[in-house]
Amino acid sequence: MPSPDALRAAVRDVVDFPKPGIVFKDITPILANGPLFRDAITLLCNPAADQRIDKIVGIDARGFIFAAAVADRLGVGFVPIRKKGKLPWKTRQTSYSLEYGESVVELHEDAVIPGERVMLVDDLLATGGTAAAALQLLTELGAEIVSVSFLIELSFLHGRDKLGSHPIRSILSY
């Protein structure tokens, strides 16, 4: 089983990005290293090991990278949750607060069939606003949330408190 330690060592802190006072956790060194990226996907797949999963849902934009790879590894469909105005068909949307502003995310109305078992995958859990909005949309469509998985969790921001009673797993916690 891959160790999270090598992933942690590769995450780069970028001070004052995207604005002063924020310490951004840069995952691009993980993405650029084939074995590390493979290990990250393996670790993100772990919550699905003993579960039936119908679809993996990823959040715009970095979450797409990880969620699509997890979906491919598990042999299931991938569903994108996008920023407002980026999906071409009938959508359901919700607005939310994030750590430095407001935003709206959307999901195609037919992306999930009621009763489908889904796993939400994203790169980062910070304040929880984006993931909570995604979970709200999925629940409205009748999805059964099997797992919520993040590469990184900024635990000092208490984002998981907004995600309800869903099983939540983070590979790295800061």
Textual characterization of the structure:
Pathway: Purine metabolism; AMP biosynthesis via salvage pathway; AMP from adenine: step 1/1. Homodimer. The mean pLDDT is 95. Strand 1 and strand 2 (23-26) form a beta hairpin. The chain has a single domain (50-173), classed as Rossmann fold, CATH 3.40.50. The strands form two sheets. It has a seven-stranded mixed sheet with strand order 5-6-4-3-7-8-9, with helices on both faces. It has a two-stranded antiparallel sheet with strand order 1-2. The protein contains five helices and nine strands. It is globular. It has helices at residues 4-10, 28-31, 34-45, 62-74, 129-140, and strands spanning 12-15, 23-26, 55-59, 77-83, 91-98, 101-108, 117-125, 144-153, 168-173. Helix content is 28%, strand content 35%. It is an alpha/beta fold and 174 residues long.
Identify the CATH architecture: 3-Layer(aba) Sandwich
Secondary structure class reads alpha/beta
- What is the CA–CA distance across the termini? 22 Å
The percent range for strand residues is 35-45%
**CATH first level:** Alpha Beta
Helix content: 25-40%
Query: SSE string, helix = H, strand = E?
Result: HEEHHEHEEEEHEE
Domain count: 1
Low-confidence stretches: none
Overall shape: globular
- Main pleated-sheet profile: 7 strands, mixed
Count of helix runs: 5
Radius of gyration: 15 Å
What is CATH's topology name? Rossmann fold
Average residue pLDDT: 95
Q: How many beta strands in the DSSP annotation?
A: 9
How are the strands ordered across the major sheet? 5-6-4-3-7-8-9
